[in-house]
TrEMBL record:
Belongs to the short-chain dehydrogenases/reductases (SDR) family. PANTHER family: NADP-DEPENDENT 3-HYDROXY ACID DEHYDROGENASE YDFG (PTHR43086:SF3), VERY-LONG-CHAIN 3-OXOOACYL-COA REDUCTASE (PTHR43086). It comes from the Bacteria. The keyword Transmembrane helix does not apply. This is NADP-dependent 3-hydroxy acid dehydrogenase YdfG. It comes from Chelatococcus reniformis.
Length: 262
């Protein structure tokens, strides 16, 4: 058993989650890998046990299924070996807002919003009581850009950034580190799974490069890591502009431009 905290990774069967599993295993962390495809998880777990000598548990879980989500919540609440939660599982859906339909939208919100929020809520009390622990939430640059035309997907990722920033404020002083990672287009299965041809996507980042950059941000204890953004000052200016509004938002009167002419 490793003396490092174990890492619970959702969506570890492919793409970004599978590479994180590889990297954390190479760093000597034991792992709990969750996703629906148990065959892929078992194969990855076996390889990482052999290559890195770490302990790897596999949990078959559909994060949109109440019983499976509750099982992972219980594991996070009770298993004191788990010191890092990586909320990575996520998906996109084909179509536009007018064509996607309520069911697909609800499922997307269940996976991209409800599940990571509930998993963070399950582990936060234990981490806060222990005065240590880390939560990594995988958002997306799409959450900064409604212009990209992925309205509900982007909204779920905007939620992830907001959730992460709120948790940083609530848990940071208790010794818990929370990181929001905002990848841009990365070469994974998410494209074909959501009905898009990956060959039409420009500026795709290799998934290994994405995860290695995100881990540089993790090691630096960055609050928000945007691997493709060349100038970190641009996000800092964006966030500073938001904060500059805050003192002006609570007013007893509507702004003059909204008052009916006398
Ligand atoms: N690739 C990209 O361009 C970008 C990706 N992201 C985000 O990165 C994260 C990982 O995606 P990525 O690696 O790209 O895509 P993949 O499709 O390769 O991986 C998605 C992972 O989520 C799991 N998953 C999907 N649905 C469920 C479910 N209902 N319950 C449990 N697990 C589920 C999948 O496993 P299984 O099918 O076995 O359940 C898989 O392991 C997502 O949150 C995505 O939004 C953000 C920005 C860019
Ligand atoms: C699903 C997507 O649009 C993409 N993976 C992204 O988040 O950039």
């Amino acid at each position: 058993m490793s003396d490092r905290p174990a890492v619970l990774i959702t969506g570890a069967s492919s793409g970004i989650g599978a590479v994180y599993a590889n990297r954390f295993a190479k760093r000597g962390h034991d792992l709990v890998l969750a996703a629906r495809d148990k065959g892929r998880l078992d194969a990855l777990a076996e390889r990482l046990r052999n290559e890195a000598g770490v302990a790897v548990d596999v949990v078959k879980a559909d994060l949109t299924a109440a019983a499976d989500l509750a099982g992972l919540e219980a594991r996070l609440a009770d298993d004191a070996r788990i010191g890092i939660l990586l909320n990575n599982a996520g998906a996109s859906i084909p179509g536009t807002f007018a064509t996607q339909g309520a069911g697909a939208v609800a499922d997307l919100i269940a996976l991209n919003v409800t599940a990571p929020t509930r998993l963070a809520a399950a582990v936060a009390p234990r981490f806060a009581a222990a005065g240590t622990g880390a939560i990594i939430n995988i958002g997306s640059v799409v959450g900064l850009a409604p212009e990209l035309g992925l309205t509900v997907y982007g909204a779920t990722k905007a939620f992830i950034l907001y959730l992460s920033q709120g948790l940083q404020l609530e848990l940071g002083s208790k010794g818990v580190y929370v990181q929001a990672v905002l990848p841009a287009a990365t070469r994974t299965e998410i494209w074909e799974r959501s009905g898009r041809d990956i060959n039409t996507v420009q500026n795709l980042m290799d998934v290994g490069e994405l995860v290695d950059a995100a881990l540089v941000g993790f090691d630096r204890r960055e609050a928000v890591t945007i691997p493709p953004l060349p100038d970190a000052g641009q996000f800092e200016a964006f966030d500073a502009a938001r904060k500059a509004m805050l003192p002006n938002l609570g007013q007893p009167r509507a702004a003059a431009r909204y008052r009916a002419a006398a």
